[in-house]
Amino acid sequence: MASTDLPAGQRAPGTPAPAAAETGKSADQPTPTQAAPVPAVRDGMDPIQPAETGWKRGLAGSLAFVRRRMTGDYEVDDFGYDPDFTDHVVEPPLRLLYEKWFRIEALGLENIADTGGALLVANHSGTIAIDALMTAVAVREHHPQHRALRMLGADLIFQTPFLGPIIRKTGSTLACNPDAERLLSCGELVSVFPEGFKGVGKPYSQRYKLQRFGRGGFVTAALKTGVPIIPVSIVGAEEIYPLIGNIKPLARALGFPYFPVTPTFPLLGPLGAIPLPSKWIIEFGEPIPTDIYADNAADDPMVVFNLTDRVRETIQQTLYRLLLRRGHPFLG
Amino acid sequence: RSTGAVYGASSRDPAIFTEDMSARSVPPSGPGRDAIDIEAYVRGFGRRRPDVRIAVPRFADVIGPTVVTPLTRYFALSPAVPMVLGRDARLQLVHELDAVSVLEHLALGDFSGTVNVAGDGAIMLAQAIHRAGRVPLPVPSLALDGLSRAVRTLRMGGFSPSQVKLLSAGRMLDTSRLRSEVGLRLRFSTVEAFDDFAATLRPALAPATVRRVEVRIAGTLGAVPLPDGPMAVGANLRSGAVDVIDALPDPLDLPRVDGAAGDQQPSSRPRLVGITGDAAGTPRRRRSR
Predict the structure, then answer these.
(1) What is the ipTM, given to two decimal places?
(2) With B204 labelled, which of A178, A213, A242, B85 sits at a CA distance of 20 to 30 A?
(3) What number of H helices and E strands is found in chain B?
(4) Exposed, middle or buried by CB within 10 Å (0-12, 13-18, 19+), for B78?
(5) What residues of B are in contact with residue A165 (Cβ under 8 Å)?
(6) Would you say the pTM of this structure is higher than 0.95?
(7) By CA distance, what is A22's nearest residue in B?
C-alpha cells in the first residue's frame, strides 16, 4: 500500500490543500474537482483542508487531535489553559447546547474590545454553572476576534476529580484576587459571578432577583489593574433547573453547598440532569471604566461599594428589560 | 537552597505563587515542612547577623539528563506511569544546568532575599508522561484525602505525601523577581528541560508509532491525515511576562545564564563543575517526524 504520509511541517495558512491524488490514494477515491474557499482561520486553529468532505475532515481532525494528545505535542499556559483541548473537546458539545437547545441570542458583543483586559461581571443562576460556560462560548464563537474568556470559579469545582482538571484546561482558575489581577494585567478577558452559590442555588420563586454581590473583591481587582468592568445579564438560566427544594442534610453529608430538588431531578434520576430548553438572551452592557479613579481607589471602601452597587443595578435593570423582550421562557 | 514546596500544593491555591505568598495548605511533614522551618531559622539568623548576605532561592523541581531525583525515577517507570485518577497537575521544572548557574550567580553576586527559580511555562503531568513516551495509568486514590494510601497504591516509594500532592494538584512559581532583581534569564523553559531529560529515556510509545497508526487509520477510513507537528497556538500566558510573540526581542536584554567563563555566545552551554556525564549540545527541540 502506498504510503499516505504527508511531508512534515505546517502548511502555510491560506494555501489550498493538494489534490488527493498527490497522496497516492487508491483509485476509487474521488478526486475533488474544485477546492472550497479556505475558511477563515480562527486564532490558534489549524487551517482546515478545504478539499475534504465534512465528516472526513472531522475524522482527520479528531485523529490529529488524538495523536497530539498521545505524543504530548500541545502547549499549556501557566494557568493550565489548554486551547487544543478546549477547542476540540469542550467547545463542540457546548456549541450544540448553545445553538440548538438554548437558542442563545448574544447582544452587545461590540462592548468587548478587540484586545486588552476586561472584567465581565454577570448574574449567576441555574443550579449548575452552565451559564458561565455559555457566556464563554458566546464570546469565543461570536465575537469578531474570537476571544477566549477566562472564568473564575469556586474552589469546590477545582477539588472535584475529573471536572477540576477539565475546567482548568478551559482556562478557568480559582476566584482569588492574585489570579484575577494577574489575568487582567496580562490583557485577558475574565468573567466573574459574584452571586456565587447563593445565586445558582436560589429557589425558583426568587428568580431574576439578584442576590448579594459579595464583598466587592472583583471590583478591587479591576480597580488595581485599571480594566473596564462590563456588566453581563444572562436571561434564561433560571429556568433550566427550576429549584423547588433543597435537601440540606444530604448536601451537608456530600459536602455540597445545596442538594437541588427540581421537578425532574431526584424523581427521574439521571434523566433529570437534562436541562429544560429555555430561551436564553445574554447581553453585554456598556463598559464601566475604572482607570478614571485614583491609584489607591482600590483601598477605598466607598469607591468599591459604589462601583459594586452600580454594576448590580445595571445588571438588574437589564435583566428586567430582557425579560420583557423575551416573553415566554421556553417559546420566546 | 530552598524549594517551591514551601508553598504547598492544593486545588485551593492561587494558580501562580509569588515570593511573598505563603502556603494556603501548610504541608504537615516532608521536604516542604522542613524547608519552611529552615527558612525560618535562616531568617532568624539574618536578623542576628545583618552583615551576612542571605539569598534564598526556591527551586522548582530540577530535571535534566544527568540528575537523579524521585521525579526522574518516576518518569523513567516504563511502560505505564501511575497518576492519580481524575487529576492532572501543572508542573514547572528547572533544568539542572540552569539550577547550577543560578546557585553560582547568587553565591558570587550581591542579591539578598527570596527568589523563585523555575523555567518558563508549564507542562501538564499527563503531557509530560506522553512526551517521555510512556502511557499514564490513572489509579484511584482510595480515600478522598488519603494521600498516604495513594502513595501505597501507586507504589512510588521515595515520594513523600507532599510530592504526591504536587503531582495531583500542581503549582507554578512566578519568576519575575528572578528576571528583574537578580537579572537572570534561564536558558531552558520547562518543556525544553523536560525534553532534554526525556531524550535520555527509551520511549515505550514512540511518536513515530503514533503517527503511523494515525495515518493507517485515516487511510483505512478514506480520509487524508492532517500534517504532523503541533498546532499553532495563539497568545501564551507566561508567568510575569506580557509579551505574546516570542519572536520579538526581549526588551530587558538581560544576560543569558552563562558559564563560569562568562562568554556571551548563545550556543555554548555553561560548563558544569564537578558533575560528570555532561550531555551535548544546545537545548533540544522536540523530535518530530
Answers:
(1) 0.74
(2) B85
(3) 9, 11
(4) middle
(5) 86-88
(6) no
(7) B224
Q: Which residues of B244-273 are buried (b: 16+ CB within 10 A; e: fewer)?
A: eeeeeeeeeeeeebbbeeeeeeeeebbebe
Whether chain B has a CB inside 8 Å of the CB on A54: the answer is: no
Q: Report the alpha-carbon distance of residue B136 to residue B205 in Å, rounded.
A: 11
If DSSP codes are grouped into helix, strand and coil, which group holds residue B125? Answer: helix
CB contact under 8 A, A77 and B236: yes
For A270-300, write each residue's pLDDT tens digit: 777 888 889 999 999 999 998 888 878 788 8
Mark which residues 102-141 of B lie under 8 Å from A by CB.
121-124, 126-131
H-helix segments, A13-148: 54-71, 83-85, 91-96, 130-142
DSSP assignment letter at A51? T
β-pair type (B93-95, B16-17): unpaired
- For residue B275, give the H/E element and its range: none
Nearest CB partner across the interface for A52, out of B11, B224, B233: B224
DSSP string, A61-88: HHHHHHHHHHHT-----TT---HHHIII
Q: Is B242 exposed, middle or buried (0-12, 13-18, 19+ CB in 10 A)?
A: exposed
Are the CB atoms for B271 and B259 separated by under 8 Å?
A: yes
Q: Which residues contact B46 (CB under 8 A, 6 or more apart)?
A: B52, B54
pLDDT tens column, A56-92: 888 888 888 888 888 888 888 888 899 999 999 999 9
Q: How far is A329 from chain B (nearest CA, A)?
A: 37
